[in-house]
Amino acid sequence: MLGVVTTESDDAAARVETGRAFERVALRASAAGVAVHPMSQILERPALKRRLASALDCDGATPQHLFRLGYAAETPERTPRWPVEVALDAG
Question: Which InterPro entries does this UniProt record tie to the protein (predicted)?
Answer without folding.
Answer: Nitroreductase-like
